[in-house]
């Protein structure tokens, strides 16, 4: 029998797989209606807290700048307790501007009833700014 933590880690794993595919509607379907997504730092248009609609706008914009239409997320290590799942993650995508985005993150997911209810995203903000924002 699986524990709550095992089920929540599986939910996060599946969310990252869907996210890596770039189907924005499928990504949003795996989130609660009141989900929030927070990104560390002061990256214009990316950092701060977004509700589900704001997250959709951000993900759609980022996906549109990539050659594949998505950022691949590869989970490296999980720690779970109750509804919280912490994941060390690596990303990779190629941008239409010729740049490569390859970042390391620490995500803290909150999972509620099998859906993503909240995310805190800690990342290398300088790398993200250099790849997505700097002209």
UniProtKB/TrEMBL annotation:
SUPFAM superfamilies in the record: NTF2-like (SSF54427)
Pfam family, one: SnoaL_2
Residue ranges occupied by any SnoaL-like domain in the UniProt entry: 12-117
Protein name: SnoaL-like domain-containing protein
Species: Pseudonocardia ammonioxydans
Organism placement in taxonomy: Bacteria, Bacillati, Actinomycetota, Actinomycetes, Pseudonocardiales
């Amino acid at each position: 029998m699986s524990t709550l933590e095992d089920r929540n880690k599986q939910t996060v794993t599946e969310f990252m797989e869907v996210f890596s595919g770039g189907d924005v509607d499928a990504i949003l379907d795996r989130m609660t209606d009141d989900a929030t997504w927070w990104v560390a730092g002061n990256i214009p248009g990316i950092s701060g807290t977004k509700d589900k609609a704001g997250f959709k706008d951000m993900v759609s914009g980022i996906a549109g700048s990539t050659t594949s239409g998505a950022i691949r997320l590869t989970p490296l290590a999980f720690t779970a307790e109750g509804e919280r799942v912490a994941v060390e993650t690596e990303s990779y995508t190629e941008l239409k501007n010729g740049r490569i985005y390859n970042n390391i993150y620490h995500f803290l997911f909150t999972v509620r009833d099998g859906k993503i209810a909240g995310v805190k995203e800690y990342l290398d903000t300088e790398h993200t700014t250099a790849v997505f924002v700097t002209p």
